[in-house]
Amino acid sequence: MKKLLKALLAVVIAVPLTLTGTEKPTEVKAADYTTAGELIYYYREGDIQFDEQRVLQKIQKYSQRDHDNWVKILDEWRYIDNQMNVSDEVPENIGNESTHAFVLLGGGVDASGNIPDGGAGAARCDLAYKCAVKYPKSRIVITGGRTTSVLRKEKKSEAQAMKDYLVNEKHLDPNRILLEEASTSTIANAINTMKMLYEDTDIRSISVITSDYHVRRGTLLFYAQSLFDSEEMGKPMIDVCDGAGSVDDPSKEGIYAEAYAIASLTGNRIPSSMPVSYLKSLKLEGDNIVQVGTTPSIKTYAVYSVEDYTVDVSDKAAVKNINPNQTGEQTVTVDYSDDLGSAEGTMKVRVVDASVMPYVMYRVYNPNSGEHFYTNRAAEKNYLVSLGWHNEGLAWFRSASNAQPVYRLYNPHGGEHHYTLSAAERDMLKAKGWNDEGIGWYSEDKTAGVPVYRVYNPNAFANNHHYTTNYAEAQYLISIGWKDEGIGWYGQDLD
Hints:
The chain is α/β, with parallel strands linked by helices.
């Protein structure tokens, strides 16, 4: 059962499996498309990289395997469309020919169920024969079932008709030929042939041989199916090499045919339209308080219009208007541009004397778990940021006094930290299995301190406490259902 990309499906899209570039099936309404269908849409409409990345991240949230395989399929698809040379010549650079097969796609029978001289079927067979001559140790796999009424009446397959032509007209050794006689579409060709090759042969690589207009779509489908079967059967992937096509009309099929074929193979629906992203704004994160003489570390994220998709562009952004040798508050400007637009962002940074830095409390955020974490250790903060946590800068200034410890605990089951002035609360949590991580920092005396408000989310299983010196932030959370737990402790007002 091919679960990997079919986990994305709603219902297999109903499309003609012999699409050409002039045929376009009815597209589905927005409510009916699948996530991978979006991905196919964006590639089909112009290889729109940022929107492809955005959709891939959505897929990754529920399946790393599906994400990885779609990356492989898109990479192969780009190669097939942009780099693969489709000619009517025998493919070059075949490796171990004794484990290579040329897969001949059936087609081109006449009214009597035979392959007529001069027709498309004969041209495909002639090209397959040239391949067999150049690589005498290779195999020829012919795939095609009873696709016409004549063939059904004669109980004869396209594959058998082509074999008869190769043996009787070209005198090819019949022992080199394998037949797959159940398929009535290119998708079925790929599914049935790859299953046969994985289960019953020692073939390790293939090349698709068909008409020139059909090579790209056929190669894409065989590549995807080989990827599926390799994973399902736990076997090394059979390589799908460059194919070749007998001369017909290379303009018959195009990107639409490829898109609907891969959608059908993977059980996905393509939307009729999707919004295309543009660069909307920049989001800046980093230390908003730094020691004099130090350049602030600022992460720059580009925010795009669709779903506010966010990309780290720090290595491409230009940071301006910062004087690290001047104490006081400064406004840093960051510029960034790409093919989707230009944007500017600003961030206020406070440059302070070195004597202030030991009292800085940092706040970082885990976008996966929802936890806000607090520490006065710059190294700990930097380590978490390197793992993907968001640097939210200064939380408050801790007290210079060691009179009132704030205890730090960790829940190994829920994965969150808790902070409290209360030794009794600390002991209660320890009794429930929390890890005591000692004293996190110290609280200022309330008569001189800045209050740090504590609120609680009764609807969350974990990471359900939040601490902030921002009264408006605390009140907002309370307004949406969080419980007001008063003042957790006090910070120091350095001003």
